[in-house]
Amino acid sequence: MVPSVLPIHGLSTPFPPTMACSIPFRIQAMAESLTHEDGDTGRPSAQADRLVELVWKKDVTLFHDHFREPFARIHIGEHWEVHRLRSKHFRRWLCALLWEAERKAPNTNAIASALAVLEGKACFEGPKTALENRTAWFGDAIWYDLTNDNWEAVKVTAEGWEVVKIPPILFRRFSHMQPQVTPTKGGDIRLLQSFFNLAEPRFSDLLLVYAVTCLIPEIPHPAPLFHGEQGAAKTTLAKMLRKLIDPSGIGTLSLPTNATELVQQIFHHWFAFFDNVTYLPDWASDALCRAVTGDGFSKRELYSDDEDVIYSFQRCIGLNGINLAAQKPDLLDRGIILNLERIGKAERKSERDIWDAFERARPAILGGMFDVLSAAMRIHKEIRLKETPRMADFAHWGAAIAKAMGSSPETFLALYFENIGQQHEEVVNADLVAGALVKFMESRKTWEGSASELLKILRETAESERVDTHAKLWPKAPNSLSRRLNEVRTNLAEVGIAIELLRDANGKRRIRIQNPSGDTDGTDDVFGSSSSLPNL
Predict the structure, then answer these.
(1) Using an 8 Å Cβ cutoff, are 134 and 171 in contact?
(2) Which domain holds residue 323?
(3) Which of 48, 274, 275, 290 could crosslink 113 through cysteines, CB 3.0-4.6 Å?
């Protein structure tokens, strides 16, 4: 028996049966006031009124999301579905509704008029509820949308998990989404290890922990950055993670050509993995950073002169390429660098054999992920971290997940901090200025001078290393150099080079660089008196 009233995400309590006629809004009052003076003439106004009345009789729940977009929850067969009122599916349902009742086809104007009324009621009298993509918190449980034809969801709590046939209103769906397999109890997430080939196998648990955290909403998730030579199965691994986390008709994504398209693309996918990325523009790197940590994006509403649509969301993001696609410090700082090794001839298998094996294992792997997540939810609040990296929520949940997997929080954190160290090295190696600075400081422990003096020295160092100082990324002026140093200052500090910005007694800016591991004490490179140089 399907209940007539179901809880709606975003409201503190489910609606009691006594309020069923008013909240959620079901158009009862409006339907009772309709008059049909024209009789059954088939005129658009009569058909529109009849459609609205039929919707009410079908016990439809009308509401709007946090974008004020109107939605309806409708009863189909033995389950409930949520659809945008302007979607093709809801329009088709309206047509079928009239045909079922009167064996008549509604005309276009009648459908448009009925939709206008329903939209108004949904927006102004229906409740507001946030619709999530794939996974959501509701109460003390994490819910995961299976996106199957029965609209089932997995409910995960600290006590365990179960497949729920009639979940609360939580999720929106997009056309690219595909059904997830039904997870099996007593599965094993470690079955996934047989399908990837990391060049540094010690990071395997780091990847497994990451996969489980992708089931957790409302936290920043670091971006896995796969790189490796051709034949390392980077794309195959990305597609497997996609099938486990966010099944889609689009296995991996291509990077679009502008920020607006990228934002909309990311919004439509819970786990957006961009394949074969050779170059990442600054605007794309910035947008990916904001999507990882959660931020707002604005775009102009279609067919509108001044209405903006505001997107605010967090997503799971991934990139792969032969070389490391991410170069900017901000994105690398939000990533997990994983090098994949080329698969040898003796170990190669056909695509069909690989995917057949994976599909056989997928229900057990997914069930194992939910088992681990449930166990982590039991111990999450007990975890205490001695050190906290930038992605603090991921580290906290990751430590709990590692313990639930049979490892230890300390081992996980050691692996994560080691990977973070690789991120800093990649930033320094990829940045022209940072690379020249490291080379220059190899033979000295201390240097001090102005930005102009440092730019001249770094230019000479770079040219001796055959670096093109006429390239676009090379700073052309002292103030540009100062900005670049600020960008990589943290990364340089992590590899042992400390930069201080100072002012001398006359108020002029100075730069002090220290490298304790340098070959000499560098006293000849210090200009001016450091005793009168306060920190900026």
Answers:
(1) yes
(2) 189-426
(3) 48
Are residues 502 and 421 located together in one domain of the fold?
Answer: no
Question: What is the tens place of the pLDDT at every residue in 295-353?
Answer: 766 655 444 444 566 667 889 999 999 988 887 888 888 999 999 998 888 888 888 99
Q: Report strand pairing: 271-274 vs 316-321.
A: parallel
Same structural domain, 520 and 376: no
For residue 182, being part of any structural domain is answered with no
Same domain, 88 and 46: yes
Last residue of a domain, one of 426, 458, 476: 426
Would you list the DSSP string of 145-169? Answer: E---TT--EEEEETTEEEEESS--B
For the cut 90, the answer to whether the pLDDT of residue 156 exceeds it is yes
Residue 335: CB atoms within 10 A of its CB come to: 27
Identify the CATH number of the domain in which residue 330 sits. 3.40.50.300
Whole-angstrom distance, CA of residue 116 vs CA of residue 65: 17
Domain-located, residue 468:
yes
Residue from 389, 428, 431 nearest 412 by CA: 389
Q: How far apart are CA 152 and CA 147, in angstroms?
A: 7
To the nearest 10°, report the CA torsion of 128, 133, 138, 143. Answer: 150
Same domain, 222 and 313: yes
- Closest by CA to 375, choosing from 158, 217, 189, 205, is 158
Tracing tokens 């939605």 back to the chain, one arrives at 71
For residue 134, is pLDDT > 90? yes
User: Rounded distance, CA 145 to CA 154, Å?
Assistant: 7
The interaxial angle of helices 432-441 and 478-494, nearest 10 deg, is: 70
Total domains present in the chain = 3
Cα 527 to Cα 505: distance, rounded to the nearest angstrom: 13
271 and 403 share one domain:
yes
Polymer length in residues for the chain: 536
Q: Which of 405, 426, 447 is the last residue of a domain?
A: 426
Task: Give yes or no for residue 39 having a pLDDT over 70.
Answer: no
56 pLDDT band (50/70/90 cuts)? Answer: confident
By mean pLDDT, which of 275-284, 439-448, 471-480 is the weakest? 471-480
Cis (ω within 30 of 0) for the bond into 14?
A: no
Strand partners for 227: 321, 339
The pLDDT assigned to 217 comes to 96
In one-letter notation, the amino acid at residue 427 is: V
Asked whether residue 271 falls in the same domain as residue 343, the answer is yes
